[in-house]
Amino acid sequence: MDLNHVAPCGIDCVNCELFAANGNREAWARVASKRGGEPEAYACKGCRDGGGCVFFDGCETLACVKEKGVDFCSDCSSFPCNRLMPLAEGASFYPHNMKAYNLSVIRTRGPEAFLAEAKDIRLRYYKGAFKIGAGPQLGPGTHQ
Questions:
Q1: Rounded distance between C-alpha atoms, residue 48 and residue 8, angstroms
Q2: Tens digits of residue pLDDT in 20-51
Q3: How far from the centroid of its chain's Cα atoms is residue 27's Cα?
Q4: Which residues have CB under 8 Å from 25's CB, separation 6+?
Q5: Overall average pLDDT of the 120-135 stretch
Q6: How far is residue 144's CA from residue 40's CA, in Å, rounded to a whole number?
Q7: Radius of gyration in angstroms for the set of CA atoms belonging to the chain, rounded to a whole number
């Protein structure tokens, strides 16, 4: 498994529109128009080989993972830490709140199993309807 398909913080790079392997030139152009430069410069290679997120500079979580010498935050004795705490701000757009769940799947079932489920996890997060005691439920017509 290529570790670049999952960020150390649990973000599912494989589902990100900026991930280079996805070839989404329109997404790269949108970021380039905001940040300047050529669209190809925003084709993310993943945190591990690409040196961090192409959308912002200086990820504290990536620096911490490198300092501690772990592959994922869930390998750390401080997991979960405040860097992974869910936030309401931006929750409808940014995948930050999925990190702790994703890392729990990685920790218990492994990165390969996580990658096999990653698209469904993201779909449930963004398209699911919450049912108390059952978590996100997908409605009719949505793949489960």
A1: 8
A2: 877 888 988 988 998 888 898 888 888 877 67
A3: 16
A4: 39
A5: 85
A6: 34
A7: 16
Report residue 74 as tokens. 């869930």
Which ranges constitute the DSSP H helices of 18-132? 25-35, 47-50, 60-68, 99-109, 111-127
Q: At what angle do helices 99-109 and 111-127 cross, to 10 degrees?
A: 150
3-state helix, strand, coil in the chain (%, to 5): 50, 5, 45
The b/e string for 93-111 (b: 16+ C-beta within 10 A; e otherwise) is eebbbbbbbbbebbbeeeb
Q: How many C-beta atoms lie closer than 10 Å to residue 52's C-beta?
A: 17
